[in-house]
Task: structure prediction
Amino acid sequence: MPPANPDSAALERLPSDIRVHVVGAGPVGLLLTELLQSLEGVSVNLYEKRREYTRTRMVTIAPYLVADSVESYGADAIDGDSVGAIFDPPELEQGIAFRQSMPSDLSAMLKSWALGFCPLNSIERSLSDLIDEREPNGVRRAGAVVTVEDAMAMLQPGDVLIDSTGSRSLLRDHLVPRSDAEAEDANTLKVRLEYVIVVTFLYGQRYDCNEYCKYAKNIENPHYKFIPMVHRTHYDGSVSHVTGVINISAQEYEAMPSRFDGEWLRSNFPEVAQSMDRFIAKIKEETHGEILGDLEIVRIPLDLYRARNATSRQFLAAGPSDHPFATSPVFLAGDSAIGSPYFQSISLGFECAMFLAGLIAQRDVPLRDLLDRYELYIYKQWLRVYMRSKMIKHNKDLFESVDDPLALLEKLHIY
Ligand SMILES: Cc1cc2nc3c(=O)[nH]c(=O)nc-3n(C[C@H](O)[C@H](O)[C@H](O)COP(=O)(O)OP(=O)(O)OC[C@H]3O[C@@H](n4cnc5c(N)ncnc54)[C@H](O)[C@@H]3O)c2cc1C
Result:
């Protein structure tokens, strides 16, 4: 290890005036910036590579995000049990107290998004506008692609760096000291759940789906089944937005382009297409509507993942060094820390932004404790996400064998 320079003495606490670099202005980076900008003694540099917010996909915000009591926070039948098992009551109470201390305009926005579906870019634009309108402002924006080298070079000892660059996080695999970081995914735990095609379309009638409907409309689909994703049908008064998945094999995944339409699927994978077409024909039979425009199809692996270290704690633990992360704490927030295809990740990322902003506000806490508290919090959120995601995947596997009792029994573990 090179000799430590005079600036590299271990940082004990965050200074009273701090500069926070937030890399990535997606929903999570924006909420963090908005929460940090009203803290005394904090200035924020916000970096984003996109020029415009163009992601129009409809997303939902989970009701627990705007809960006003511990009871309503745990209202979801499945997630509520996990929350009760993982978090202690004072932790939950602190989370509710933080929500209640947020500026009223921000709080009203979150509540309005939790009422139904909302385009992702309208969430991003609203948060971005709120940041620009706040007085005093304290936020400097930079429109640039930040590289790992840039991120390291921008740090002065005592600065805080937050990586909110999404699932392909800029820094996740750089948070472990060099000798451990040789391997790809050095700091990433990944669980591949399955490969799927995701089919999205607009339908000219109201259409809702539940587990009975998923079953009944797939009765003639013995192998491939088209399954509307949990809570992924939405009627906006004139059209329904429908998103569904079909499980495919790894070989089929490899043989498909990343993006295609219904015609391509029918010509190249007729059996897969048939399951989707049968399902859609039954929707039409019931509700007498038509598909509007084309089917949009992407093929993706569904991965559940987490950063084994969601902070730069390992650099601190390794003792004084010249590495910038030894004197400037780094945090991962949002999709860069945890992700699951079956969990409302924006809400998870928003909660993590609230927790991190609450920690940065406590300038008297020793830095080691600060990092440990954040790590523990992210680990608990991971347990919650992991449990729910595995349960949904298991239920989905059972569903796919529901007409084959022997195959079904093989997948059951009773007692
Ligand atoms: C089809 C689909 C449907 C979904 N539906 C829902 C839903 O209903 N509810 C829900 O909660 N979630 C949903 N999600 C997931 C949700 O979109 C993500 O969890 C969320 O966008 C993550 O927010 P983030 O801010 O952490 O990361 P991102 O949204 O990925 O934002 C990261 C930002 O960082 C910027 N960036 C990246 N690298 C750099 C760099 N090097 N330099 C500068 N800037 C950089 C990017 O341009 C981007 O703006 C869905 C996802 C998909 C694909």
About this structure: Residues 23-29, 47-50, 57, 59-60, 120, 145-146, 164-166, 170, 334-335, 344-347, 349 surround flavin-adenine dinucleotide (CB under 6 Å). The first strand starts at residue 18 and ends at 23. Residues 6 and 322 are 9 Å apart (CA to CA).
